[in-house]
Amino acid sequence: xxxxxxxxxxxxxxxxxxxxxxxxxxxxxxxxxxxxxxxxxxxxxxxxxxxxxxxxxxxxxxxxxxxxxxxxxxxxxxxxxxxxxxxxxxxxxxxxxxxxxxxxxxxxxxxxxxxxxxxxxxxxxxxxxxxxxxxxxxxxxxxxxxxxxxxxxxxxxxxxxxxxxxxxxxxxxxxxxxxxxxxxxxxxxxxxxxxxxxxxxxxxxxxxxxxxxxxxxxxxxxxxxxxxxxxxxxxxxxxxxxxxxxxxxxxxxxxxxxxxxxxxxxxxxxxxxxxxxxx
Length: 279
What we know:
Blueprint: H1 2-23, E1 27-35, H2 53-66, E2 72-75, H3 84-89, H4 92-100, E3 105-107, H5 117-126, E4 131-132, E5 136-137, E6 147-148, E7 150-155, E8 158-165, E9 182-183, H6 186-200, E10 205-210, H7 222-227, E11 234-237, E12 248-251, E13 257-262, E14 271-278
Parallel strand pairs: 1-2, 2-3, 3-4, 4-6, 8-10, 10-11, 11-13
Antiparallel strand pairs: 1-14, 5-9, 7-8, 12-13
């Protein structure tokens, strides 16, 4: 009986240890890389011999090999327009290079419209990554099947929801280049999608790719957008060519501080931020 009791006690201790271990929160680290406003700067800057796609690709490849093979890579728009590469090939060079670097998703910048909607369809179809925007209604246009509101990426056992928000086209895009596309309120549309990502898609993390800009004089920018939304974990931004050496934090609709990152222009920088996800 003594041996049986001892064995039972040991079994109970083992079960207690298992339950304690199972209840411990698990932390997962996500390395997230961001580019924006590359403006077709495929080659290095002639004056400084810095930047360019080759250096970007080398850096990303090194990070994948030496730091995190499962890193996430996003673009926040305006990879188009700004050099002879765009004048000659209308964005195809940029997309093929982004494919080679294995981007996970991108949003739309105003300069993606520069060669018209049919060219946008061509580029978005050519890309190996989804093009995301929640606040352009493209139904009934040639973009209806190639622009998505969001995507869900499974990485390191996490479900990561990603969506895009884009600026008003009026004043930024030639009217003939966005016929049939309607601009919608980014805050209202984002909150709808965030609810879907959290409740229906059961995402552990929600990221926003924004081309609204930071501290602009326009009706909406990243700061005002974050203030009107709830449920975003990180906003990656573009459009204003702003450079952040570290994330800036702004309150959302619930009063929580949300990190925002911007990484300049012309392929000069790659932004990097690490998220520690506990669940």
